[in-house]
Amino acid sequence: MSIAPSPPSILSVRQLSCERDERLLFSGLDFDLYPGELLQLEGPNGVGKTSLMRLLAGFLPASGGRIYWQGKPVEGCWEEMHQALLFIGHLAGIKAELTPLENLHWFAALEGGQEEEDLEEALSRVGLAGFEDQPCQQLSAGQKRRVALARLLFTRRSLWLLDEPFTALDKQGVAAMEHLLVEHAQAGGTVILTSHHALEQLTGLRKIHLGAPQAGVKEAIHE
Amino acid sequence: MWKWLKTLYHRLGSPKWFYQITGSWLPWFAGAAVVFLGVGLVWGLAFAPADYQQGNSFRIIYIHVPAAFLAQSVYIMMAVAGVVLLVWKMKMADVVAQSLAPFGATMTFLALLTGAIWGVPTWGTWWMWDARLTSMLILFFLYLGVIALREALQPQEVAAKACALLAIVGVINIPIIKYSVDWWYTLHQPATFTLTEKPAMPASMWVPLLIMLLGFYALLGWSVILRARAEVLKREYKAGWVKELLQRK
Amino acid sequence: MNKPAAAFCRLKQKPANLPGLFAVFKAALGREWRMQVRRRGDLVNPLVFFALVVVLFPLGISPTEDILAPVAPGVLWVAALLATLMSLDALFRPDLLDGSLEQQLVTGYPLAPLALAKLGVHWLLSSLPLILLSPFLGIMLYLPWEAQGVMMLALLLGSLALSLVGAIGAALTAGVGKSGVLMTLLVLPFYIPVLIFGTGAMQAAISGGSAMAHLSLLGALAALAITLAPWAIAAGLKIAVSGE
Amino acid sequence: MYFDSLSDFFNMGGHALYVWSAFAISLLLMLLNIILPWWNFKATRLQLQRQLRREAKQQANSSITEQQGEQV
Prior knowledge:
heterotetramer; A: alpha/beta; Rossmann fold; six-stranded mixed beta sheet; four-stranded antiparallel beta sheet; 6 helices; 10 strands; 29% helix; globular; C: mainly alpha
């Protein structure tokens, strides 16, 4: 029934379904994702976009179907997959007791470390110059989110799962962010994101529409 | 045999099959419980000889020991169900675990209560920090913990997994707790005699005890199946077969 | 081409170079140390609680030596037990609420060592001060001098088991809003062996016997907890994240 | 029978209070463990049946309004 995906696909999903609180969010979801692709999950609120993200990150068990990482069932290689994964969810994952710089140091340490100047540069590019040594307690929620987004500037991880990454950004920030995503895709990286913004600048954005479960899943590619 | 067990296991994993098959098991468990408990009670109360030291108060053993035995084995069953849930992700295991907990807690309470009542003629006091009673009391708290954790957590899948993990951790700890309590008891109160410590029981005493134990197990099956069936209906309400069943009346 | 002031642009990439587990463990230790040192209130409160409970006993029972000295081991251990439990309650909840727990799940490294790093720092910052405080409270309860050293050694070994086992409860109740009582109910039964062997060691020392048997049993409990508890803690944390 | 007479049996060698209270309470708790789940099962079934009926009614209603909408 479900054919194992061909090797070059980085992430594949076969007949995936998700149930939360005894409600079927989506079912029969199929897609293959290749290096260099930008994928946007669309659909009204409560349709399971965030749940799909959490499922792909391994936080939730799927109610049915499978996920493949580079052609292998992901259950056997979560660690390998996570080493290539950068996830930013609704919660920023930034510790309030630490300064932005210390927070970034930790994420950099997970990838082998980074020069202090580079991290400072990353913070200034997301508009947090001057906040390097203030505990994140004193930052606003939007600023904390930008600390998390600063990770994207120096990470070497190839698969990005970004849940509503644009919420804390102004118009310029969104444009810059879109530029960053395109750059990552052109370098062979892969991005899955959800967003309420109309993403005008993103070229080659692929969209998956999560809709009513009965109607199945519609897919459209906007060139 | 092994193959048969395997198919039984897989079938029990399907709520529909579980519901149907346990429906036909119910009368058997009920009948066995009534017969074994009836015979055991009459035998234990009226025909078994009295203990030479404790006299007729010894007859409380026919409740106390099976209850204490069930209290421990139900906790182990809960942990086994927990392993099945966490390792093989079989959701029916959680239905069973959830249905086991109240029965296990009742048995623990019963063992404590009969122990206390028994204590009056034997020790002259309602409560004594006897090793067996103390372990039972701790087991009672373990049961309350599992039940309280399930109440506190949402959604249901999360509560199920958390309770499974707690039961497994508990089952690893129970021998340690039991051993430490035994040690503590001998350290502090040597040479008082334990309620059920008997050198050698004659058959006229232990055969009714065995029958009572079987009766308790049958009762366990009956009670747990009743609870599990209601839970299956609740959880599988959306499934077609449940709707059909409900419409049939 | 001029970029806007806040333009995001990727920094120069270095070749991928994944650090070993030990390097990550060390980084996690450093991070936890900084975080926990900055939450001073959370560290001091259990100590004050410990001292206060011990002080209440003479007021409730009697100030005389012949009554206080025999109950001193029990009082000290029960107070230490409750203080440890209290300090562990909020171990993982902030991490779950701010999303750093889910980030720990996707580091690409096993969760157990990361949780162990957190717990290790927590032990250093809360259990160790408690052990250092205990002789002073022992003096106030007329604990004989012979028993002081044994008490500290027993607390040292016992607190390892208490922290590790308590952390399982903290992981399971991380998703529960107000979990103080629930956590107590879940964890206290598992603390009983430590309580028994801990007080046993002190009583053996008071009565002039050897506390070696008790101490080695405490050590065995600690060793068992170190080998098994991290996996249970990691499993509990994963369950907690799946419930968010 | 171990006892000489029925009154002897009820007397339980002077331990009547303990033996009979222990057995009575035990029997009561056992019965509760059968009766309560049984009631619970019945109540669950009734409640689900009611819910099913309500849902069916709602569905019928909504299909009627849909048809009316089309007519308008």
